[in-house]
Design a protein that fits this description.
Keywords: Cytoplasm, Hydrolase, Metal-binding, Signal, Zinc. The chain has about 425 residues and is α/β, with parallel strands linked by helices. The chain has 10 helices and 19 strands. It binds N-formylmethionine and zinc ion (ZN) (2 copies).
Length: about 425
């Protein structure tokens, strides 16, 4: 039995759904066949041709109640195969019980744990009051525009009457699972410096690379100030602004390298910036314009907020957060359900990167980021991503408890049929 559960996980992991050419059809077929074995209703939505979104339904007995949506993405980030101990799509199970694969943490584990939890609940005879939907969405790793974003905007979604969304979280190196109630907003900044070209042997002011380096130094000071707050334990990772240089571009190329005795007239650097929902975005923008890329130093910048439409602020400019207090019954139910299954939760956090949950929160729905992986190093997007099989199995029990609690929950305080969202 256990070996079958693990082998189903391995089979999903072995489907190469790495961007930029994910085998979505194979992944969809796998999910649909699992769904059929569980007698779940299924449909495949293709908001963009070739990018299937598989939507499954376990019907609840009371259709007037809002539904539970369990979301997961089917794509994974690419892997540098030669830097892995075991091939990233082999799902190799080693003698420690560690399963190595791209997607083992981010987030094929979660998608199939939902299904395994439902398998167990069905076997136990449990019948949900609320309908439970599972969405297996494409393209999260490249922004979710062909997947969760379209889905959240669709009439199909509206008709689901979703009341609560669960989406991905992060592994936890401690025994406490992590939960996420919000996420940072991505800003991708390119700073470009121009300057007079000249002989490689000449010392003169205002070269492009000198100008760019002044910016980089300024960015680095800011980065250090933010990182220090985290290192000192004053702020959590998701509560500071992160800035990381992700590319550097300058020089005059030759077929074999670069011209060495010519100072270039242009130099560019790119930064991945993540802004907490409660941060002062305007002051950051001022810092960029005045300190990092001042026109007085011949600098220009392009700042793509990743997707203007989806920000961390709602229409009235308030940060979009999912409540983690008594105003949100789903939060308390999750806490209780995890405890009941012998799991421990840490303090809820702001997700340091981005997930599809933002598209659901944007609609005003509560969304909780949660991937039940304790005692596990954080290896998403890293080499040798793995998940231990016992942690994986434990996670199924955790979801069994959560889904049971969510699907049974009836809010007696409200009239039947009302959307019990936040
Ligand atoms: C901003 S869209 C890209 C989403 C991606 N999500 C997970 O890593 C991220 O970079 O956070
Ligand atoms: Zn992910
Ligand atoms: Zn990812």
């Amino acid at each position: 039995k256990e070996s079958e559960i693990i082998s189903r996980f391995q089979r999903y992991l072995q489907i190469n759904t790495a961007q930029p050419k994910p085998l979505y059809r194979e992944a969809a077929d796998f999910i649909l066949s699992e769904a059929a074995s569980l007698s779940l209703e299924s449909q495949t939505l293709e908001f963009v041709p070739g990018k299937p979104l598989v939507l499954l339904k376990w019907s609840g007995s009371d259709p007037s109640l809002s539904s539970v949506l369990l979301n997961s993405h089917t794509d994974v980030v690419p892997a540098e195969h030669d830097k892995w101990t075991h091939p990233p799509f082999s799902a190799h199970l080693d003698s420690n019980g560690d399963i190595y694969a791209r997607g083992s943490q981010d987030m094929k584990c979660v998608g199939i744990q939902y299904l395994e939890a439902i398998r167990r609940l069905k076997a136990s005879g449990f019948e949900p009051k609320r309908s439970v939907y599972l969405s297996f969405v494409p393209d999260e790793e490249i922004g979710g525009h062909a997947g969760a974003e379209k889905f959240a905007e669709s009439d199909v979604f509206k008709d689901l009457n979703v009341g609560i969304v669960l989406d991905e979280g992060l592994a936890s190196p401690t025994e406490n699972y992590r939960t996420f109630y919000a996420e940072r907003c991505p800003m991708w900044l390119v700073i470009k410096a121009t300057g007079a070209p000249g002989h490689g042997a000449k010392l003169y002011d205002n070269t492009a690379t000198e100008n760019l380096f002044k910016s980089i130094e300024s960015v680095r000071r800011f980065r250090a100030s933010q990182f220090d707050l985290v290192k000192a334990g004053l702020k959590a990772e998701g509560e500071v602004v992160s800035v990381n240089m992700v590319f550097l571009k300058a020089g005059t190329p030759t077929p074999t390298g670069f011209v060495m005795n010519l100072q270039p007239s242009e130099a560019e650097a790119g930064f991945d910036i993540r802004v907490p929902p409660t941060a002062d975005q305007e002051s950051l923008e001022r810092r960029i314009a005045e300190e990092w890329a001042p026109s007085s130093r011949n600098m220009t910048f392009m700042c793509g907020q990743f997707k203007q439409k989806v920000s961390v602020l709602d229409d009235s400019g308030r940060p979009i957060l999912t409540a983690t207090d008594s105003s949100n019954p789903w939060w308390g139910l999750l806490e209780e359900a995890v405890k009941k299954a012998d799991g421990k939760l840490g303090k809820p956090e702001i997700f340091p990167a981005s997930t599809d949950a933002r598209y659901f929160r944007q609609l005003g729905l509560p969304a909780i980021g949660f991937s039940p992986m304790a005692n596990t190093p954080i290896l998403l997007h890293d080499h040798n991503e793995f998940l231990n099989k016992d942690e994986y199995l434990k996670g199924i029990e955790i979801y069994e408890s959560i889904i049971k609690a969510y699907a049974s929950y009836v809010d007696h305080g409200r009239s039947a049929g009302s959307r019990d969202e936040l």
